[in-house]
Design brief:
The chain has about 450 residues and is α+β, with helices and mostly antiparallel strands. Strands 12-18-17-16-15-14-13-20 form an eight-stranded antiparallel β-sheet, sandwiched between helices. Helix 1 packs antiparallel against helix 15, helix 7 crosses helix 15 and helix 10 crosses helix 12. The chain is globular and about 75 Å long. It starts with a helix and ends in a 15-residue tail after the last helix. Bound molecules: FE2/S2 (inorganic) cluster and fe (ii) ion (FE2). Fe (ii) ion binds next to helix 14.
Length: about 450
């Protein structure tokens, strides 16, 4: 792409060429250099608890069957028949010992092995002519999990998932490890928005600044106990390893009092205390910060919030996990899950689900507010003038690049990475700088894979 170096250097200094939010050529580079290399979140182990359970998920254009075999291992099988390339599994989720291709009927075990070909003897000379035993659906080159979250990478040279995630794991635990049992998911709800995928990822990573403006009505109707959305500046944003997020500042109190303040019942508080490290407890109990929205690069986001669920003043927390799955430069498929501690009391689970549905998901009030902005931004980014505009994403920096406010010390914020209070676009810049790192690296040549080599 002409001018890619200049574009990426603008991105790195926080001046964002507006067209990157709706550009075919950029999208092609993202497919070739980013989504073919990064670790991409595709689901959670609790979605496929029993042998034979599967879900079908995509990494950009590539469809994978995420299936648990009879040996209890979870695999990501490329959903393309070895014969003529038909999609082997057309259902979105289910339980099956085998998948039979709808086109000519080749069938595969749920670990990917080819086991049946119609007219095998007549058409191929049987196993002597075409041995089945080494034929299997292509596996994703890399699959690994963290707290049951399943990630896939199309890059055989991908670094270990733990290294890729780095210190963001510390914060992932707040969402996905509130007890030794971990989380269970409901969903996903799935819908498409006419918006570029990066906008949501940036927003969840650190856009505390939009809350007072975009979500005014949510505050005005009294969904939150916190009286002013503008209070968001008292919270901290942090960036650690390969992700970052936002927090709210809680009123004074102990760890238990603060967890109770956002609506956790005592048995859940006890298990959080057991599961979290001293530093994880300190971020909440000593420093008074409660995690809210976050993103893991490139396109996974989470949110934790605590709206009022009934007529009383009582609030209740929910957790949601989502992916911003690119469809086109101007279209994103959102997969949004409700997540809850598997050991949470049943009444907590059902009220927490209600809280989630009110705020996020296809009917959520925050969701409606946000997407209106993102669709409009995306359509404007396709025009000729957008190619001349550098968007100012330098909040939190003075003209010479020095920060408006200092990073918090370990005595103020016990978590790893870099954290700051006040408004800033540090996280959006981190996310897009990482994006620039991927886009500037030309792809390595890929050897054509065959089933037999897998
Ligand atoms: S394409 Fe699958 S059996 Fe022919
Ligand atoms: Fe929002």
């Amino acid at each position: 792409m002409n001018g890619l170096d200049a574009l990426l250097s603008d991105v790195r200094r926080g001046m964002i060429p507006a067209h990157i939010y709706n550009d075919e050529e950029i999208f092609r580079l993202e497919r070739e250099r980013l989504f073919s290399r990064a670790w991409i979140f595709v689901g959670h182990e609790s979605e496929v608890p029993r042998p034979g359970d599967y879900v079908v998920r995509r990494v950009l254009d590539d469809s994978f069957i995420i299936a648990r075999g009879e040996d209890a291992q979870v695999r990501a099988l490329f959903n393309m028949c070895l014969h003529r390339g038909m999609q082997v599994c057309r259902a979105e989720m289910g339980n099956a010992s085998h998948f039979r291709c709808p086109y000519h009927g080749w069938s595969y075990r749920n670990d990917g092995r080819l086991v049946g070909l119609p007219f095998h003897q007549d058409a191929y000379g049987g196993d002597a002519g075409f041995p089945r035993d080494r034929q299997r659906l292509l596996a994703a080159p890399a699959l690994d999990t963290y707290n049951g979250l399943i990630f896939v990478s199309i890059d055989p040279e991908a670094p270990p998932l733990a290294d890729y995630l780095g210190d963001i794991r510390f914060y992932l635990d707040y969402y996905t490890r509130q007890s030794a049992a971990g989380i269970e998911l409901r969903g996903p709800q799935r819908w498409r928005i006419k918006a570029n995928w990066k906008i949501g990822a940036e927003n969840f990573a650190g856009d505390m600044y939009h809350t007072p403006q975009t979500h005014t009505s949510v505050v005005e109707i009294g969904l939150f106990r916190e009286p002013k959305a503008a209070k968001r500046k008292d919270g901290a944003t942090y960036w650690a390893g390969n992700g970052g997020g936002t927090t709210y500042k809680l009123p004074p109190g102990s760890l238990e009092e603060r967890l109770r303040y956002v609506g956790y019942p005592d048995p859940m508080i006890e298990s959080m205390k057991r599961c979290w490290s001293a530093e994880q407890r300190d971020v909440v109990g000593r420093d008074g910060f409660m995690i809210s929205a976050a993103s893991v690069f490139p396109n996974m986001s989470m949110v934790h919030n605590w709206p009022k669920v009934g007529d009383s003043e009582q609030v209740l927390p929910f957790i949601s996990i989502r992916t911003w799955q690119p469809v086109a430069p101007d279209e994103t498929e959102v997969l949004s899950w409700f997540a809850v501690d598997a050991q949470a009391p049943p009444e907590f689970k059902s009220l927490s689900y209600k809280a989630y549905l009110m705020c996020f998901g296809s009917t959520g009030m925050f969701e409606q507010d946000d997407v209106e902005n993102w669709v409009s931004l995306t359509s404007t980014a396709a025009g000729t003038m957008a190619r001349r505009l550098l968007l100012n994403s330098r909040m939190g920096l003075l003209a010479d690049g020095t920060p408006v406010s200092q990073a918090l010390t370990r005595a103020q914020f016990a978590g790893p990475g870099e954290a700051r209070t006040g408004y800033g676009e540090y996280n959006q810049r981190h996310l897009l700088s990482r994006w620039a790192d991927y886009l500037e690296r030309p792809p390595a040549p890929v050897a054509a894979g065959t089933a037999a080599r897998a």
